[in-house]
Amino acid sequence: MNLLFHTPGHAEHDPTALSPGHPERPARLEALTPVLEQAVGAHAESGTWAKREHAPATDEALARLHTVAHLEWLEGLAANGGGLTEPDTPVLAGSMSAARSAAGAGLAAVDAVLTEPEATRAFCAVRPPGHHARPFTDRGAMGFCLLANAALAAAHARAVHGLARVLMIDFDVHHGNGTQDAFYADPNVHFLSLHRFPFYPGSGAKDETGAGAGLGATRNLPIAFGTPADTIVGRFCIALGDVADVCKPELVILSAGFDARRGDPVGDLGLELEHFAAMTAAVVAIAEAHAGGRVVSLLEGGYDPAQLAEGVETHLAALAADEPSSE
Hints:
This protein is α/β, with parallel strands linked by helices. It has a single domain, classed as Arginase, Chain A (3-Layer(aba) Sandwich), CATH 3.40.800.20. The protein is built from ten helices and ten strands. The strands form two sheets. It has an eight-stranded parallel sheet, with helices on both faces. α7 (177-182) links the parallel β6 and β7. α5 crosses α6 and α9 packs parallel to α10.
């Protein structure tokens, strides 16, 4: 069984109120509503997909990566009616409730796949996204991201469930600098990022491979614009296999961004739906080989709502492709 989580009240975080035309807007998740409803409805009898409720992330969970000063800064901006943390990252009155819910979805998804024998995969349709939010930094919000959703999920898996090895994967068009920073010196959380380079946020060079005890646990695949899509996917699959063979993960956490799709207004690496299907299938295969099939996928980028809906629909199908019927 696969589980679907979403962000209740996400529309209260509406950056267009402070920055007209902002691409990270409520319409992104609103476009996913029919996709998620169809995913549940299409498998209602077999029980392959199910929607789940979840609680917002607690201060204790957030404090594993975020400083008190960071949280107080964001809560203060929200309480005072909002403001900009940087030119492209607004905070509004409802932003922190949405961000806490987005982070909480990842925590609940980890709990489910690690404690429920019938639950193997989870997809979190959440916003605001999280992979640029910098941990251990007093004012770490950037790149549309307020809280480090995927990294918090990994920290939760380690702290609450005692996992020794977690593999984090990111195929958003932008490098997940916040995720990388969270575990750069940690030998037990491996990170693989495929991203356009050079590009925002400027990090993610090939020689960024970790530090201290974590040296070698970070693997970056910087991709030049114009690289053929099949070549990109081939590189990803080879690197993924190599990293997984070293990490031997007990859980796979994926930052699933769809802004590498051809025509995305913020990113674009020329990928099409079949390429996202292939990368998702490769992630599933790694999870089956090493982690009992357990994958938690969290939405990151993708800024054309119609294209995003198609990407998520493709992603869900690939996540569930090997799920056996309950009949």
